[in-house]
Design a protein that fits this description.
The chain has 13 helices and four strands. The chain has about 350 residues and is mainly alpha-helical. The chain has a two-stranded antiparallel ribbon. The protein has a two-stranded parallel ribbon with strand order 3-4.
Length: about 350
C-alpha cells in the first residue's frame, strides 16, 4: 500500500490501517452531534441559512456548552473540553468540518498525528478558557453586558491549527510554502473579520485559539530545540498529549452521565417561565374567574421535579386563589419570574446567550 497523503499506516499482523488523529477527532465531533440531536429530540428548520438544522438551546447547553458562571462558579471545568466537540446545527457543523479537514491534513503532514491531537486539544482548551474569561469580564468588570452567555464549536481549535500552520509556513522559503502561507493568511483575516460582522460569533474563542496555535508553533518549530533537548521536548509533548486526552475523556464521561438530567432541568425552567409569561400576559386583562382558574390549573399541572421550582409554581398558582386585583396579581407574577430568574442563574447558568465558534 502506498504511503497516504496524511496520517500513518499501522500494520497489525496482516491488516493495515490508515490512522490519523484527524479521523479520531472527526469521529468524536460526529458522535457528539448525534448525541446532541438525540438529546434535543431532533433538529429545527430555522429561519435563515445559518439556523437551518439547528439544535435547541437545551441541546447545546446541557451536553457541555461553555460559559463563565458554569465554569468558575459551579466548577464545571469539564465544559472547557466538551465545548470544542459540540455544534449549534448542521450548517455550523459542516462549515467547521470543511475547515478542519482542509487544515487538519496539512497539519498532520507537518506535525504528525500525535502533535495534531496535542495542538487541537490544547488550542480548544485555551479557546474555551479565553471565551469564558472574556464573557466574565464583560459582565462583572466592564459591565458592558447584563448577562453572561455560553459558546461551543470546534473553530477555536481550528483557529489554533491555522495559527500554528501560518507560523510554520512563514519559516520556509520555497514557493509552495509561501503560497500556502498567503492562502492561510487570507483565511485568518476572513475568520477573524467574520466575527466582527456576525454578532453571534465567539470572537474571544477564535482569538484565544489562534494565539495558542501561534505560541505552540514557535515551540514546536523545526530547529527550535537543539539535539540535546529534542528528546525532552518529545517526552513533554507526549506527556501533555496524554494528560489532555485523559482530561478530555473524563470530561466527555461527565457530560454524557449528566446530560439528560441537565436537559430536563433546562426544560423545566423554560416551561415554567413560559407559563408565567402567559399568566402575566392574560390574567390582568381579564376579570373572568374562568380565565384565571384555567391559568391556575395550567400552572398546577406542570410536572416539575425540583423542589425550588415546585415552590415557585405553587406560589404563582396560589395568587389566583385569593382573587387579587390586577395590580397585585401582576406584582406577584413578576416576583415569581424574578425568583425563577435567580434560581436559573444557579441551576442553568449562562443560558441566555449562545455564541458559535
Amino acid at each position: 500500500m502506498n504511503e497516504p497523503e496524511y496520517g500513518r499506516l499501522i500494520r497489525i499482523g496482516r491488516l493495515t490501517f490508515h490512522f490519523s488523529s484527524l479521523h479520531l477527532l472527526f469521529g468524536m465531533i460526529s458522535l457528539a452531534f448525534v448525541g446532541q440531536v438525540m438529546l434535543a429530540g431532533g433538529l429545527d428548520s430555522g429561519g435563515s441559512i445559518f439556523e437551518f438544522g439547528g439544535i435547541s438551546n437545551g441541546g447545546c447547553w446541557a451536553p457541555g456548552g461553555c460559559g463563565p458562571r458554569a465554569v468558575f462558579q459551579n466548577h464545571e471545568w469539564w465544559r472547557l473540553f466538551t465545548a470544542m466537540f459540540l455544534h449549534v446545527g448542521v450548517v455550523h457543523l459542516l462549515m467547521n468540518a470543511w475547515a478542519f479537514y482542509s487544515l487538519g491534513k496539512l497539519a498532520d503532514r507537518i506535525y504528525g498525528p500525535g502533535r495534531l491531537l496535542f495542538i487541537y486539544l490544547l488550542c480548544g482548551l485555551v479557546s474555551s478558557l479565553a471565551s469564558a474569561v472574556w464573557r466574565h469580564l464583560r459582565v462583572e468588570v466592564f459591565e458592558w453586558d447584563l448577562v453572561t452567555g455560553y459558546s461551543l464549536g470546534a473553530s477555536g481549535a481550528i483557529a489554533g491549527l491555522m495559527g500554528a500552520l501560518l507560523i510554520n509556513m512563514r519559516t520556509h522559503v520555497d514557493i509552495q510554502s509561501q503560497m500556502a502561507y498567503r492562502g492561510l493568511f487570507r483565511w485568518a483575516i476572513l475568520l477573524l473579520g467574520f466575527g466582527f460582522v456576525y454578532p453571534n460569533i465567539d470572537q474571544a474563542g477564535h482569538v484565544g485559539g489562534f494565539a495558542a496555535g501561534v505560541v505552540l508553533a514557535k515551540v514546536l518549530q523545526e530547529g527550535h530545540f537543539d539535539q540535546l533537548r529534542r528528546g525532552r521536548e518529545q517526552r513533554v509533548v507526549f506527556a501533555g498529549t496524554a494528560l489532555l486526552v485523559v482530561l478530555t475523556l473524563a470530561s466527555i464521561g461527565i457530560a454524557v452521565a449528566g446530560a439528560a438530567e441537565r436537559h430536563g432541568r433546562y426544560g423545566e425552567i423554560q416551561t415554567l417561565w413560559e407559563h408565567l409569561d402567559t399568566a402575566l400576559d392574560r390574567a390582568p386583562k381579564s376579570t373572568k374567574t374562568e380565565t384565571r382558574l384555567r391559568l391556575q390549573r395550567g400552572l398546577r399541572r406542570l410536572d416539575l421535579s425540583y423542589p425550588d421550582l415546585q415552590a415557585i409554581r405553587d406560589g404563582a398558582a396560589s395568587l389566583f386563589t385569593d382573587h387579587p386585583g390586577p395590580l397585585r396579581l401582576v406584582q406577584g407574577l413578576l416576583q415569581a419570574k424574578a425568583d425563577l430568574n435567580e434560581l436559573g442563574f444557579r441551576l442553568v447558568p449562562d443560558r441566555y446567550s449562545l455564541r458559535r465558534r
